[in-house]
Design a protein that fits this description.
Shape: globular
Number of helices: 11
Strand content: under 5%
Distance between the termini: 54 Å
Number of strands: 0
Structural class: mainly alpha
Helix content: 55-70%
Order of helices and strands: HHHHHHHHHHH
Oligomer: single chain
């Protein structure tokens, strides 16, 4: 977060904690990058009471942007079970927000959280596809699908291809993302083979003549 980049300053972190709690008490409209930075900097202290306040606010707010920012802030807590709890309770439907996709990508890359995220994506499929720029209709749904497909592509395996196909249903053409996943799988396999060949051909330390 922006505030954290200024250094490990206890006073600064305490200010972030105070501002976070002030916003939680009165969640007024705030510039998202600033709010995101304040909430994540406060979360870095690992205060479990604050985490509970984040979860409560995330569930109660009707502002999709606030849901996304709070979800992202929960990822900043050292305790991974907090983010797992956030996933179990809710998932932001505003995945078009720039600050959220990197967090969801990190969640998908975390084995302990991956299954929960996948279940939530399918359970909230229609809400996810309908969110964002609703006035653009089909084009907006395609944009949302492409974002979710990025999460499945991160798996870089057959399961990722199956998930992308299921999520596409009869509404979207999953071919581009399937081609991407196939390419990723081929690269990973080739890289593994190259590494194996290199190790096989290279003499072990101490065995050279």
């Amino acid at each position: 977060p922006l505030l954290s980049e200024l250094g490990d300053d206890r006073e600064l972190r305490n200010q972030a904690l105070a501002r976070a709690r002030a916003w939680l008490a009165h969640p007024v409209p705030t510039e998202l990058p600033l709010l995101d930075s304040i909430l994540q900097t406060a979360a870095a202290q690992g205060d479990t009471t604050l985490a509970t306040e984040y979860l409560t606010q995330m569930e109660s707010t009707k502002n999709g942007r606030h849901t996304a920012v709070l979800f992202g802030a929960l990822h900043a807590f050292p305790d991974l079970t907090l983010l797992e709890a956030a996933l179990a309770r809710s998932i932001p439907d505003r995945i078009d927000l720039p600050n959220l996709m990197p967090i969801l990508l990190r969640v998908m890359a975390t084995p302990a959280l991956r299954e929960t995220l996948v279940k939530k994506l399918f359970a909230h499929r229609e809400a996810l596809l309908a969110a964002g720029k609703k006035d653009k209709g089909k084009a907006a749904r395609q944009e949302q699908f492409d974002r979710v497909a990025q999460l499945f592509a991160l798996r870089c395996d057959a399961e990722g291809k199956a998930l992308a196909t299921r999520f596409a249903g009869n509404e979207f053409d999953p071919t581009p993302i399937l081609v991407s996943i196939t390419g990723c799988m081929a690269f990973a396999e080739a890289t593994q083979e190259s590494a194996t060949e290199a190790l096989t051909k290279s003499p072990l330390p101490g065995t050279q003549n």
